[in-house]
Each structure stands twice: as C-alpha cells, then as structure tokens.
Amino acid sequence: MIRRYLVIPLLTSLLLLVIFVHSSYAWYDAFHNHPDNNMSLPEPLFGSIWMDNYKRSYIERIDTDNFVLALKCFDGFYDVVYATPKLNAPTVCSNYWVFRVYPFGKCPDDNYLPDYWIRFYNSSGGLIDEGGSNFLRYLFESYHNGDQYELLRSGNTIAVYVNGTYMGDLGGVWNEMPCNIEFVAKKRTMGYYDQKRLRLDDISTTGDVISTFPQSWFILRNWDNPDANGLYEEDGTTRVSTHTFNIRYMWRNVTSYSERNPPCDKIIIKHFTSGEIVNQTPIPPQSFGKITYNFTEMLFHDDPKEDKYGLYEVDLMRGSDVIAKDYFFFTYVSAQKASSGTISWEKDSYASGETARIHINITNPDFNTYLYKGYVYD
Predict the structure, then answer these.
(1) Mean pLDDT over residues 179-184, rounded?
(2) What is the sign, positive or negative, of the torsion defined by CA atoms of 255, 256, 257, 262?
(3) Under DSSP, is residue 101 helix (H, G, I), strand (E, B) or coil?
(4) What is the pTM for the complete model shown?
C-alpha cells in the first residue's frame, strides 16, 4: 500500500500553479483533467466547462489513459432525441477550430448514425448559425479512427478538412468570428431504434496539442518494494500501468485551401529543473498520432538515488521550435525519506494576454508534517 499522504495534493502542487490570463486564440481541451471526469467541472488549464441541455454527453475513458467527450446511445422507437454538448466557458473565439473523432461506442442496435450539426456563437453568446446535417453524418461514418477534422472560416463560409483533405463546406452563414463550439446530434426518426454514439477529443483553436496522462496521476518508484512501481491515479492506490504510458499529439495541418504547415518532426522529454533530455523520438509526418513509452527504461537507474525525480516536460517539436507542451510527474517512496523542491517561472517575461505558468516541484513531499505554500506578487 502506498502512503496516501504522498500523493493527495498532486493535482495542485505536483505540477503547475497556473495564472489564468484569458486568450481568445490559444485553447484546447483533451478531456483528461476535468475533476471526477465531469465535463461540467472546470479543468485546471483553461477552466473549460461543457454543458448539455439534454444531459446526454459525458467524459468517457476509452483507453488506459485516454479520455474523450462522448454522446450516449440514442434509443427509443420514433422518439426525437438530442445531445448538445457546448463549450460553456471560457469565451473562446477563432476562425480555426479542430477536433478528432474516435470509433463509435457500441449500442444495442447501432446500424445507423444520428444527424449532426455544429453550432458556433458570437462573443456575446448569441447563435451565429449551424451547419452539418447529413454532410457531417457521412464524414463521421467514414472517418472516425482518431481522424483530424479542421474547420477554417473564410469570408462567410467554413471549410471542413479531414486529415488535410478538403471535404466541402459546413453550411450556414458565418458573418462573425466563431466562438464556443457546440455539437448537436439528433436521433433520426423513421423507426430506427438505437443509434450510434459519437466520441470527440483534442478540441482546439490552435491545432497544436500534446497530451500525457492526467495531471493528477504520477509515476512512482518504490525503493523498498519494486513490485509496487508504476503509473498511479491520484488516489495513490490505483495502478494504471507497471511500465508504460502514452503520449498523444496533433498539430495544425491546414492554413488555407492550398497551404499546409510543415510537419512536426520529434517529441522531446526532459527533466524540467535540470533541463536534461531523457528521450527524443522522431515522429512521422502525419499531423496526429500516439507513442507508447516505457517509463522504467527511460527514467529508472540501477541505483534509484540517481533518478531525477520531479516534473518532466514533454515538447512537440518542429525543428528547433516548441509547438506544444505538456508535463508529468515522477516521484518515489522510501524508508530513507528525503524531500527537496523548487519553484520556477516557465519564462522570464510574458506578453499581455499570455498564460503564465509557475512550476512547483516537490520531490517526495511530506504533507503530514509540513504545509507547502506558494505566493505570487504582482
């Protein structure tokens, strides 16, 4: 049994103390950091909250460490049923939106898909328009294996690209910058009894996303009982994996009808405090993917005292440029208990409207004996 007091505060003190500065053009939600996997509770990075007036949407765990926005099965003979997951907060506006579609969840009789629409609102919360219907149904039915959907507004139209290929216009009249996306699913009538679910992930206004496991999870090395090593959930007792974790990534592909971004080329993992690079992995030119890492091979030394514990940064790279980043935590438990820590800013200076992150790295904390505090002075 792992001592729980070592891991209870990991969500707040193990990773990041984030100062939220609103930015309308840099936002994403990978759905793995909402408290209790509740989409109506704000996740820590942007404070994102999702609402569904029909209560038919939820966060679903579809893999060891992958969480998605899912719509429930539509059932009921001839009934008209809706699902309307909408980004309720913060206010996010952009002429570019992107998301990924994953395989549909099984329903008792799921030979059909509902009709789908996408709605956008203006910065004041008023509905601009909606588009999609059977056009989106066809696309979702054809491309749903983690495929990348990019929406690009130009003039009064929104073009839809799947994996970089232009598929057509969404429909609707878009005379304002789109804000706060809403997905609408309507059960088709004509007697179809059960209809398939929809699974969405990595919804973003930049397209540049890299995700490790939830921020409240951590990699643990037990010096006294190696059989207890592993990737753990926040409770400190639920072990998710003994040796591996996954990193999922995506970058913006489409910049205009005829132009594409150059591909990202590698992922770098480094110890945050020392800057030591522990892994560099080249990636293929496709604009999204997943890599599985063996953390025991990457982080564990023969002598556990030689390990570098604390915060690790994961960078999606294009040449020498960091396109997106995420973080994870590596700690230990031992009878030879020792604690140390650092507090540092991610950068030396910040522009107005930029998100500032303060990194708090406490190695093997003792929350029974000590109270750890951090202060930010403006």
Answers:
(1) 97
(2) negative
(3) strand
(4) 0.84
Q: In this structure, are 83 and 224 located in the same domain?
A: no
Pairing of strands 266-271, 310-318: antiparallel
* DSSP string over 320-360: TEEEEEEEEEEEEE-SS---EEEEEESSS---TTPPEEEEE
Identify the domain boundary among 203, 235, 252.
203
Could you give the CA distance from residue 12 to residue 311 in angstroms, rounded to a whole number? 13
Contact 112, 188 (CB under 8 A): yes
Residue 370 belongs to a domain: no
Is residue 8 very low, low, confident or very high in pLDDT (cuts 50, 70, 90)?
Answer: very low
Final residue before a domain boundary, out of 203, 236, 260: 203
Which three-class secondary structure state does DSSP give residue 295?
helix
94 part of a folded domain: yes
Q: Which distant-in-sequence residues (6+ apart) come within 8 Å of 158 by Cβ?
A: 131, 151, 152, 169, 170, 172, 174, 178
Domain hosting 230: range is 4-14+210-363
Task: Give the count of domains, the chain.
Answer: 2
Say whether both 230 and 150 belong to one domain: no
Structure tokens at 254: 């489409």
Residues 131 and 242 in one domain: no
On whether both 216 and 174 belong to a single domain, the answer is no
Beta bridge partners of 241: 231
Instruction: Indicate if the pLDDT at residue 10 is higher than 50.
Output: no
DSSP 30-54: -SSSSGGG-TTSPPTTT--EEEETT
Q: Do 149 and 287 belong to one domain? A: no
- Residue closest to 304 by CA, chosen among 337, 327, 329: 337
Q: Give every CB contact of residue 101 below 8 A, 6+ residues apart in sequence.
A: 140, 143, 144, 146, 147, 149, 198, 199, 200
d(CA 64, CA 9): 22
Tell me how far CA of residue 354 lies from CA of 124, 187, 251, in angstroms: 22, 41, 20
| Among candidate residues 167, 217, 270, 239, the one with its CA nearest the CA of residue 67 | 217
pLDDT digits (tens, 9 = 90+) for 210-236: 999 999 999 999 999 999 999 999 999
Alpha helices (runs of H) in the chain, residue ranges in sequence order:
134-142, 295-299
